[in-house]
Amino acid sequence: MNGKKGEIRERIWALMEREGISRPPLPIRHRIPNFIGAERAAERLRDIRAFQEARVVKVNPDSPQLPVRKLALSSGKLLIMPTPRLRRGFLLIDPERLSSGAIREAASIKGAFKYGEELDLNGAPRIDFVVAGSVAVAPDGSRLGKGGGYSEIEYGILRELGLVDEDTPIATTVHEVQIVEEIPMEDHDLAVDYIATPARLIETRRIRPRPKGIMWDELPSEAIRGIPLLLRLKSGRGAKGIG
């Protein structure tokens, strides 16, 4: 399956470069690719009732979802952002502590560290809506990231701690060319409920169940060693704060 997944990633990255759809940071290979129209795709989330009603939103830290993080903060929602590669766990950014002029900066990775606070997962609020980055996605909700598995690890951690569940809605924002007919999926892979593009909003009506937690047997030891939060969870000491 990894061979097929790799082929899809390479095809999408090459297509986006060839069609002039991608935008910095460059090169887009081995990234969740940023794309022209990411702002319009983010705005499509306003049409989702679950997003409208959400108090707490978790959004990945990649560049094409910066407009989503800005939208969440400007809509008065608490934003939870994983730190890159989860090396420092999760950050919580409270829009009530921001001036209107600081929202754009706070939505960036650098700004999230400046304005956010390290999240104590033992006392963290339940998450009402999740946005994940994608390299490719299919109409049935099957999704493909850049290959590191961080969306799945993040979800597994949050599921273990009861902060998300099977019914927590998950969306992704992509360009139309990132929608493919089919993506091979494995048990640990995370499917989405909504696909937002600059042109439209798709409700996937997914039927694939989500992982019920961290699939420890599928995590290489180097991945666990590289994420302190995983080390604490595996040792049974819990997850008090991040670091």
Average pLDDT taken over every residue: 92
| Largest sheet features | 8 strands, mixed
Instruction: Give the tally of β-strands.
Output: 10
**Overall structural domain count:** 1
Cα-to-Cα separation, first versus last residue = 34 Å
Pick out the low-confidence regions.
237-243
In percent terms, what proportion of residues is strand?
5-15%
CATH class: Alpha Beta
Within the largest sheet, what's the order of strands?
Answer: 4-3-2-1-5-8-9-10
**CATH H-tier superfamily:** NagB/RpiA/CoA transferase-like
Number of helices: 9
Concise description?
The chain has 243 residues and is α/β, with parallel strands linked by helices.
Which short descriptors sum up this protein?
alpha/beta, 10 strands, eight-stranded mixed beta sheet, 243 residues, disordered C terminus
Describe the structure.
By secondary structure, the protein is of the alpha/beta class. It has one domain: NagB/RpiA/CoA transferase-like (Rossmann fold). Helices cover 30% and strands 14% of the residues. The chain has helices at residues 2-18, 38-43, 49-53, 66-74, 103-106, 109-115, 150-160, 221-225, 228-235; strands spanning 56-59, 78-82, 90-93, 117-118, 129-132, 136-137, 143-144, 170-173, 194-196, 201-203. The strands form two sheets. Strands 4-3-2-1-5-8-9-10 form an eight-stranded mixed sheet. A two-stranded antiparallel sheet has the order 6-7. It is globular.
